[in-house]
Amino acid sequence: MNGFLGGVFGKGLDENIRLAYEWLVENYNDGDEIFIFGFSRGAYTARSLAGLIAKLRVLKPGSPIRITQLYDRYKRGNEEKIWRLAELESSGNLQNITTEEEWLLEDVVNSWPFRRWSRLQLGQPCAEIRLG
Fold first, then answer.
1. How far apart are CA 45 and CA 48, in angstroms?
2. Among 94, 5, 33, which residue's Cα sits nearest to residue 58?
3. Which residue segment(s) compose the domain that 42 sits in?
4. For the chain, how many structural domains are there in total?
5. pLDDT, tens digit (0-9, with 9 covering 90-100), for 30-49
6. pTM of the prediction?
7. CA distance 23 to 50
């Protein structure tokens, strides 16, 4: 049943994005390249994760804000509230991702039936995202 609900309603999407971001926080080192792949629903998750990273960058391990708090604030779309909790921009708790980072995104699951209800800040499908 969970596979069905995941396929039809996107159940589990938030958890998958948070788990992937948490893994990245624990394993990313300055200068690493980030490659994100996904197929079908996984591609939608990959695109959502890329949007999260492009907007918020990557926390350093041990940052004072929990990933769940950061993700929930990001999902609501209120940028002021995203950073207010720990003053992350000036605290040194974000990884240094340079403007040279490039994101190649293939068009993914554009026809997801409940996309209009999604509050994720995905933007429009594009061939490339450049941070900066």
1. 5
2. 94
3. 2-130
4. 1
5. 888 888 888 877 888 888 89
6. 0.62
7. 14
